[in-house]
């Protein structure tokens, strides 16, 4: 989980995922623990006999642990004098005060000095087999030219540049160019509507926008420049739009538009890096807006980079020479951390994935793994659920022998199956173990810490860590109210979790997704455990007897040949056995698709309004991936309710 940047992902629990985990997780032979070899950052710490003592030290002596890691992992212009100054109850989070550095130098220059021709980026373009490799030297030159161009055109230290681009080398160079000259960046997923883009531009006060003429995804051309034109018409602060050419198709250019690649060629390949304080803003990243006004979460220089680098290295057991394949879009925090900053800070080779998991066919991921010889594959549960519909044959068709690690989380990982031990047990469906320096706790409804195992509660983190978002842009009070006030002294993730008898953690979902039925909490896991179900969403509604009833939306796997009435009976039997009869769904509506944002998040707010019959209160649907899904669900809901009324009227 990258906290507080969005939802905690749940492992996909299915026979398919179990086979995936058993097949792809590489098990290294047991050997005597050598702390210096395993984690050079901790080489000077005394008394560490194994990974468990290292984990214990990182939690009980967090300040010393993170200070040692920062000194070793990052290159500093000036050393820091204070490792941390944090007070979670007040929302004050500061790390490595007094230290000065430049993030782009940490991601580029220091690697160019030692291995300039090493491949930094593999751009996996939409058409398979057309990948482009970019070396560290080339990426540094690209970054410096763009940094100089931005400076020449008036972008200053402390400004915020909005980037609306698909995953591509120029998008990465744009992020790093901002970091190089001391400007913050605001990357917006290149699929958001003009309205959503404009809202983010205005909130970030961006006078400069960077985009491309068109995007290409899933064999379709996306008119990104036209979207930007519409957006900036309502953003009077925008003075210039830098346009790169992803395709050869010309686009209309206005007086504010700049041919970015042509202007970059005029610039020098050397760009003096800005000297940045540890707590200067590195970037803003906005939530999808599915729960109201988007939140611009603020991440700063040193703490973010350190945490992204460490989690990339140790959670995925990344080693020099590996090819790291994170298929997240750069518009999300996962793409920031594990497609760009984490791998580049570690001098790694990282894949930028432009396409979709089913283009040109459902074997795209695995064909790419075979062709690029990917060693670590990092995907999203939403994508895996999608692929479940198409069966195992697409997986088995390709050679996956290069894979050492297959995983999924959201953003800067706090809880992971193997945060420290490549041989550790993996339990499908569980996030499992905390990363170094992370101390999760479960809280009950009265705000008390639950100390026993085999229990559930609200997931909080009991002490700060460097990778935390520092605030919400222009609204620190909202940050405090959202993350610090619900459980004073603890950081509230917004997620519910279960801790097993072995002490492993399982994310049960957002707390507002969990329904309390007759005193029992129910989420979607019990429904999704059915072999015929691809995904589901459970919505609570007011019930005279049970407090809340359960209305469940279910998407079936492809080619499932079962009558809906039979499947409804099967699902109810499963829930009845796992919980109790009174926890069974009152309504089960079968749908072809669930309403999702373009990031893959189910818009439960919309489903709740449908269940409550408040169709006038659906709110902003601009972030929906497929608005037609909502109309199908509304019609299906009417039919299901109508059938219920007819049954009630029968004698």
Automatic annotation (TrEMBL):
Q: Name one Pfam family in it.
A: ACAS_N
Q: Which GO terms describe its cellular component?
A: mitochondrion
UniProt EC number: 6.2.1.1, 6.2.1.17
Q: Where is the AMP-dependent synthetase/ligase domain?
A: 109-408
Q: List each copy of the Acetyl-coenzyme A synthetase N-terminal domain by range.
A: 54-107
Q: Which InterPro entries match?
A: ACAS_N, AMP-bd_C, AMP-bd_C_sf, AMP-binding_CS, AMP-dep_synth/lig_dom, ANL_N_sf
Which top EC class applies here?
Answer: ligase
AMP-binding enzyme C-terminal domain boundaries: 529-601
Q: Please provide, alphabetically and separated by semicolons, the GO molecular function terms listed in this UniProt record.
A: acetate-CoA ligase activity; ATP binding; propionate-CoA ligase activity
Keywords attached to this entry: ATP-binding, Ligase, Lipid metabolism, Nucleotide-binding
Q: Which catalytic reaction applies to this protein?
A: propanoate + ATP + CoA = propanoyl-CoA + AMP + diphosphate; acetate + ATP + CoA = acetyl-CoA + AMP + diphosphate
BP-aspect Gene Ontology terms: acetyl-CoA biosynthetic process; lipid metabolic process
Q: Which family does it belong to?
A: Belongs to the ATP-dependent AMP-binding enzyme family.
Which PANTHER family does the entry mention? ACETYL-COENZYME A SYNTHETASE (PTHR24095)
Q: What is this protein called?
A: Propionate--CoA ligase
Species per Swiss-Prot/TrEMBL record: Sparus aurata
The encoding gene: acss1
């Amino acid at each position: 989980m990258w906290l507080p940047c969005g939802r905690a992902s749940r492992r996909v629990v299915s026979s398919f995922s179990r086979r995936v985990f058993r097949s792809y997780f590489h098990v290294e032979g047991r050997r005597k623990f050598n702390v210096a070899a395993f984690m050079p950052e901790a080489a000077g710490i005394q008394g560490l006999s194994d990974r468990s003592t290292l984990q214990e030290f990182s939690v009980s002596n967090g300040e010393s642990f993170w200070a040692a890691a920062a000194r070793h992992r990052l290159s500093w212009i000036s050393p820091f004098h204070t490792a941390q100054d944090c007070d979670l109850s007040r929302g004050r989070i500061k790390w490595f005060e007094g230290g000065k550095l430049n993030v782009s130098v940490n991601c580029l220059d220091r690697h160019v000095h030692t291995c300039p021709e090493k491949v930094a980026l593999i751009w996996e373009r939409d058409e398979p087999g057309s990948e482009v490799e970019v070396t560290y030297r080339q990426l540094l030159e690209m970054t410096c030219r763009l940094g100089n161009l931005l400076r020449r055109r008036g972008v200053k230290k402390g400004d915020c540049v909005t980037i609306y681009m698909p995953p591509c080398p120029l998008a990465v160079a744009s992020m790093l160019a901002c970091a190089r000259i001391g400007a913050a960046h605001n990357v917006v997923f290149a699929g958001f509507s003009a309205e959503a883009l404009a809202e983010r531009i205005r909130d970030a006060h961006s006078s400069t926008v960077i985009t491309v003429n068109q995007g290409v995804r899933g064999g379709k051309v996306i008119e990104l420049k036209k979207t930007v034109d519409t957006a900036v018409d309502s953003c009077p602060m925008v003075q210039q739009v830098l346009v790169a050419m992803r395709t050869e198709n010309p686009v209309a250019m206005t007086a504010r538009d700049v041919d970015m690649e042509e202007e970059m060629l005029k610039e020098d390949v050397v760009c003096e890096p800005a000297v940045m304080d540890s707590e200067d803003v590195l970037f803003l990243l906005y939530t999808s807006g599915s729960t109201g006004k988007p939140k611009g979460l603020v991440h700063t220089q040193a703490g973010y980079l350190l945490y992204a680098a460490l989690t990339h290295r140790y959670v995925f057991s990344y080693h020099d020479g590996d090819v790291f394949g994170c298929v997240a879009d750069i518009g999300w925090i996962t793409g920031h951390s594990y497609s760009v900053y984490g791998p580049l800070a570690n001098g790694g080779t990282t894949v930028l994935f432009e396409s979709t998991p089913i283009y040109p066919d459902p074997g795209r991921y695995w064909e790419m793994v075979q062709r690029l010889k990917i060693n670590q594959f990092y995907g999203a549960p939403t994508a895996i659920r999608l692929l479940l519909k198409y069966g195992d044959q697409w997986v088995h068709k390709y050679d996956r022998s290069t894979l050492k690690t297959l995983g999924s989380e959201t953003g800067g990982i706090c809880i992971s199956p193997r945060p420290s031990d490549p041989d550790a047990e993996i339990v499908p469906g569980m996030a499992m173990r905390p990363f170094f320096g992370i101390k999760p706790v479960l809280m009950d409804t009265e705000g008390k810490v639950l100390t026993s195992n085999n229990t559930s509660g609200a997931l909080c983190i009991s002490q700060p860590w460097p990778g935390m978002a520092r605030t919400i842009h222009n609204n620190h009070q909202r940050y405090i109210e959202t993350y610090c006030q619900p459980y004073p002294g603890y950081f509230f993730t917004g997620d519910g979790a279960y801790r097993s008898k072995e002490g492993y953690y399982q994310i049960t979902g957002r707390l507002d997704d969990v329904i309390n039925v007759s005193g029992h909490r129910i989420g979607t896991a019990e429904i999704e455990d059915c072999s015929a179900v691809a995904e589901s969403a459970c919505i609570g509604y007011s019930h005279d007897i049970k407090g809340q009833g359960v209305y469940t939306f279910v998407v079936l796997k492809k080619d499932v040949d079962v009558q809906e009435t039979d499947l409804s009976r099967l699902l109810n039997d499963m829930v009845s056995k796992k919980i109790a009869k009174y926890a069974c769904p009152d309504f089960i509506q079968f749908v072809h698709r669930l309403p999702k944002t373009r990031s893959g998040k189910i818009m439960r707010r919309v489903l709740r309004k449908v269940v409550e019959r408040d169709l006038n209160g659906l709110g902003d649907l601009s972030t929906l991936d497929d608005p037609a899904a909502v109309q199908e669900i509304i019609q299906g809901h009417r039919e299901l309710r109508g059938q219920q009324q007819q049954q009630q009227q029968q004698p």
